[in-house]
Amino acid sequence: MARTAVPGRLGDRLPWRAATLTERRSETRGASTLVLEVPGWPGHLAGQHVDVRLTAADGYSTQRSYSIASAPGAEQVELTVQRVTDGEVSPYLVDVFCAGDAVELRGPVGGWFVWRPEQTEPVLLVAGGSGLVPLMAMVRARRAVGGRSPFRLIYSVRTPEDRLYQDELRHTDPGLDVEYVYTRTAPEGSRRPPGRLRAEDLVASGWPPDLEPTVYVCGPTGFVECVADQLVGLGHAPGLVRTERFGPSGG
User: Fold this and answer.
1) Cβ atoms within 10 Å of 79's Cβ, excluding its own
2) Fewer Cβ neighbours under 10 Å: the N or C end of the chain?
3) pLDDT tens column, 25-57
C-alpha cells in the first residue's frame, strides 16, 4: 500500500538501510509482494510502514512510503505494492524489480496504528483495497504468537480477482472471521449485491460497541473517513477507532 508522505515526521531522522530483493511474489494482476533482505533491520510492529528510496544511475532519486506486510520477527521484510496507473515508482516495483536488485529502506515508522500481542480486547479490522496490507501484518503477528484475542476482518474490494492474500485468508486462523464486501462485482451466488461498505455491514460483521473493540481502518482517504464516521455513529468510542489513510503520492 502506498502512503502519502508527511514532511518533517520522525521517520526523516531514521537512517537509510540497503535492502536487496530476494523474491517478488504476484498477489493479483496489479499487486506484488516484495521480499527484502535488510541487514541490520531493527524489527517492527504490526501496522508500521517504511520509506523506500530508488536511485537511478544518473543520480535521480525518488521515494515512496509502503506498509509492512510481514509479521514482526520475520527474517525478511515484506512489502505489498499495488500498481498505480501512470505512477512513477509502483509500476517498476510491481513489474520490473528483480531478485538481486537493490533499494534503500528507512524505518520502521509509526507508533499509533499498531497492534501489539499483549492486547487482549476484540479487534475489528476494516480494509479498503490495498489498505489490507498493514492489517494483514496484524493478522500474521497474532498468528505468530498464537494470540487468542478475537479478530474480525471486513475487506472491501472491487472484485474477487482483486483480493490480496486469497489463499492465506481462505484458511483463516481460529478466532479470525473474514467477511468480503465487493463494490463492483460479487461472486455468483453472493447474498450481498455489489456496493460500497455500509453501516449495516459493520453491524453484521463487526463487533458491537459495548464490547469496546479496538478498530483499525485503512484505505483511501474517502473510504477511511466514511467508515470512521459510520463507526462513531454506531456508538464506537472515537478513541478506539484508529485510522490510516493513503492518497495520491505519484505512485
Assistant:
1) 25
2) C
3) 999 999 999 999 999 999 999 999 999 999 988
